[in-house]
Structure formats: structure tokens, C-alpha cells
TrEMBL record:
InterPro entries: AAA+_ATPase, ABC_ATPase_HisP-typ, ABC_transporter-like_ATP-bd, ABC_transporter-like_CS, MetN_ABC_transporter-like, P-loop_NTPase. The lineage of its organism: Bacteria, Bacillati, Bacillota, Bacilli, Lactobacillales. It holds the Pfam family ABC_tran. It comes from Fructobacillus fructosus. It is a peripheral membrane protein. This is ATPase component (GlnQ). SMART domains: AAA. The keyword Transport applies.
Length: 244
């Protein structure tokens, strides 16, 4: 379980997040939604300290950090060993094949043997029907294929929590569907995921809970069905803007 308590992040010209209190259960999928610039990505990136909040407490499993105090490299490493991030940009290693993209982290960071890392990577590719991509380079892949590989590369590190920041925002609808199918499969397997998404249909179908961030504040946090059937004016306004 990940929890944040009284988390705030201020920039010189803007309040990004203000007094955020949230729980992200293990083995569940949480969708973070809200208007552009509302603080969704800042919240996600705070969970693995890519963005450093000014104040608050971060709890991941048994690890508790006071974010108002300086953090040691060891503390930051402990957080990042439990999480893996997938960004909007695929950011694959362009000089490496798909297989080597998946084995680079386990070999260099986790000190796994080449044989063990390759075996695990091939199993991941097989699991998601991507074996034929193993020896291709990123330039030989479609945008959807690249993003699917980026997700598998994160999974290859065996994270406790998978964090995804708008993983389909740069894709056309057909390629987006390819990536969303992978995420649906992960949700069925009860992989712990926190996903910033603009795709309300996906959030409604896949998420166990929804967090609605509006202007740096939590406008809703709870069951998915409760969000999509809310009578709260601001939520109805937001969801109404998704259709025309």
C-alpha cells in the first residue's frame, strides 16, 4: 500500500498540490484523472520522488518518509526499488534490441545473470504475445509497440508498484488500444498500478478506484462507480466535457 499524508508541492508561481491525503492499495488499479495542469503528473511523480514534495509523509509498505526533511540516497533508492515508472514518451534505449531493453536493468541494477534476465524477459514477451519483437530495434516498432515494450521493461524490474503517466497520450486511437489491452491484462492479474489517464472509458472499465485532482486538490477519491455516477457539480462538469 502507498499512502500520502498532508502532501504539498509549491512552485514560485503556482500551487501544484495542496494538503493531499490518499491511499493507493496494493493489488489494485488506481486511475488519477482531472483537467490539464491540475497536478496529476506531479502527484504521480511524487510517489517515487521524481518530483520532491515540500511537505507531507510518504508511506510505501513499511517505509515511512517525512518529506519535509532531507532524504538520504538510501531512502530514495528504497522507494525506487519498489516502483517503476512508464512515461508518455517511450524512452527506449535506441541502440538496443527489445530483448536487451528488457534485460539491461535487471542485469546492471539488480545484478541478475544474463541467462536469468533473458529468461524472464522472454517469458514476459511470450505472456503478452510480443515474442516476435525480441530482436527488433525501437526504430523498427510502431508507437504502440514501443510503448508496450516500455511497460514490459518496467515490469522486468519486478516492481511492487507500476506508475504510468499518460502512457497512451501520444498515440493514435488504434495504437492506444494496443497499449490499453496490455494494461487491462495487468489489471486482471492484480498488478498494483497507479495510472494518470485522459481516457475515461479505460478508467471506468479497468480502475478499482479513481482519484480526481482539480487545481491541486483532491476532488474525489473512492470507488470507480461512485465517481462516474457522482452528482457532484464539478465532477459532472468534468465528465460532461469529455463528450460532445
Amino acid at each position: 500500500m502507498i499512502q500520502v499524508k498532508n502532501l504539498s508541492k509549491h512552485y514560485p508561481d503556482k500551487v501544484a498540490l495542496e494538503d493531499i491525503n490518499l491511499t493507493f492499495p496494493a493489488d489494485h488499479t488506481t486511475a488519477i484523472v482531472g483537467p490539464s495542469g491540475s497536478g496529476k503528473s506531479t502527484l504521480l511523480r511524487s510517489l517515487n520522488l521524481l518530483d520532491r514534495p515540500d511537505t507531507g509523509t510518504l508511506l510505501i509498505d513499511q517505509l515511512i518518509l517525512d518529506l519535509a526533511k532531507p532524504l538520504t540516497n538510501s531512502q530514495i533508492l528504497q522507494i525506487r526499488q519498489k516502483t517503476a515508472m512508464v512515461f508518455q514518451e517511450k524512452a527506449l534505449f535506441t541502440h538496443l534490441t527489445v530483448l536487451k531493453n528488457l534485460t539491461e536493468g535487471p542485469i546492471k541494477v539488480q545484478k541478475k545473470s544474463k541467462e536469468e534476465a533473458e529468461s524472464s524477459a522472454k517469458e514476459l514477451l511470450k505472456q503478452f504475445n510480443m515474442t516476435e519483437l525480441a530482436n527488433r530495434y525501437p526504430y523498427q516498432l510502431s508507437g504502440g509497440q514501443q510503448q508496450r515494450v516500455a511497460i514490459l521493461r518496467a515490469l522486468a524490474m519486478s516492481p511492487k508498484y507500476l506508475l504510468l503517466d499518460e502512457p497512451t497520450s501520444a498515440l493514435d486511437p488504434e495504437l492506444e488500444a494496443q497499449v490499453l489491452r496490455v494494461l487491462k491484462e495487468l489489471a486482471k492479474k492484480e498488478v498494483s498500478m497507479v495510472i494518470v489517464t485522459h481516457n475515461m472509458s479505460f478508467a471506468e472499465q479497468v480502475a478499482d478506484q479513481v482519484v480526481f485532482i482539480d487545481d491541486g486538490h483532491v476532488g474525489y477519491a473512492g470507488p470507480t462507480d461512485g465517481f462516474f455516477h457522482s452528482n457532484e457539480k464539478r465532477i459532472k462538469q468534468f465528465l460532461g466535457a469529455m463528450s460532445f
